[in-house]
Design a protein that fits this description.
alpha/beta, 8-stranded mixed β-barrel, 12 helices, 9 strands, 19% strand, globular, binds ligand C2E, binds calcium ion, Diguanylate cyclase (GGDEF)-like protein
Length: 281
């Protein structure tokens, strides 16, 4: 039994070393990815459920590695966060998304708000407000066309500093959305404390709308919609894949949604076609 125990332990450490080695390898490649221009921004449409119109978009980063191909953000964002590389990468995404949004506006396409995801590291940086300010200045994008998405867990750390940062951003006219709302195991009291403008219903709650006849189907989605309405916040449903989910959300008064039912995140050129169509209807 002792022998077996040791083998298990060895197997375990080997797997751990392999995991650590893979992360280190990825980190080294991530370090060069910016100058090699391997990142892309994809755009996912935000839809008005009452009219079916395109009304906004979320920027989602993609890493196109020369050998590995498209690496999922679920894989490389955690590595970027642990290594601090999320700082320059996040700034690049923000600049690219703002710049692209302004270019579309200048081209006469219907002006829409762009939502950009922020990591904890970025929000905790002392100079986040200045960074955002100078990016808006450089690109010429008006602050009311920018929305920043952050998760509940970010609000729970360094509460006072984060609160002050968010107030300054909000005062500039930037919108603040809570991403993956309801998954952060936090208290709801922060909704009063922080200058939030939008709640995004996490995909896991949208998935449960299915209507398998279960009594609890859609209950959380419904509660988040009611909460948002009562607090006078915007509410966006994420990960809408089924018509039945869309109908349920619409009936409950959720007016905005994203999901594969409408469109997956698409490259710039493809999003431009959607924008052009939106401009002609
Ligand atoms: P998120 O911010 O919650 O983004 C939503 C994710 O759900 C995206 O995955 C999107 O492609 C996917 N999605 C959208 N609609 C559907 C649907 O109907 N069904 C399903 N199954 N999935 C859907 P993606 O692009 O792989 O990004 C994963 C996560 O990586 C994001 O989750 C976000 O936390 C992070 N991320 C992506 N881009 C950035 C970025 O620029 N900065 C930071 N800090 N994080 C980012
Ligand atoms: Ca998001
Ligand atoms: Ca989300
Ligand atoms: Ca997420």
């Amino acid at each position: 039994a002792k022998q077996q125990g040791r083998n298990t332990w060895q197997l375990h450490t080997t797997a751990m070393n392999q995991h650590a080695a893979e992360r280190l390898l990825m980190e080294n490649h991530l370090r060069k990815a910016l100058e090699r221009r391997e990142f892309l921004v994809y755009y996912q449409p935000k839809i008005d459920l009452m009219t079916g119109d395109l009304v906004g978009m979320e920027a989602l980063v993609r890493w196109n590695h020369s050998i590995w191909g498209l690496v999922s953000p679920a894989k490389f964002i955690p590595v970027a966060e642990d290594s601090g590389l999320i700082q320059p990468i996040g700034e690049w995404v923000l600049r690219t998304a703002c710049d692209q949004t302004k270019r579309w506006q200048d081209a006469g396409l219907p002006p829409m708000r762009i939502a950009v995801n922020l990591s904890a590291h970025q929000v905790e940086q002392a100079n986040l407000v200045e960074t955002v300010q100078s990016i808006l200045q450089e690109t010429g994008l008006e602050p009311r066309y920018l929305e920043l998405e952050l998760t509940e867990s970010i609000l729970m750390q360094n509460t006072e500093t984060v609160n002050m940062t968010l107030r300054r951003l909000r005062d500039m006219g930037i919108s603040i959305a809570i991403d993956d709302f309801g998954t952060g195991y936090s208290s709801l009291s922060y909704l009063h404390r922080f200058p939030i403008t939008c709640l995004k219903i996490d995909q896991s709650f949208v998935r449960r709308i299915e209507g398998n006849g279960d009594r609890t189907d859609g209950v959380i989605a419904k509660a988040v919609i009611a909460l948002a309405h009562n607090l006078d916040l915007e509410v966006v449903a994420e990960g809408v894949e089924e018509k039945s989910q869309m109908q349920f959300l619409r009936d409950e008064g959720c007016s905005l949604a994203q999901g594969f039912l409408f469109s997956k995140p698409v490259p710039r050129e493809e999003f431009e076609i959607l924008l052009t169509k939106a401009g002609t209807t």
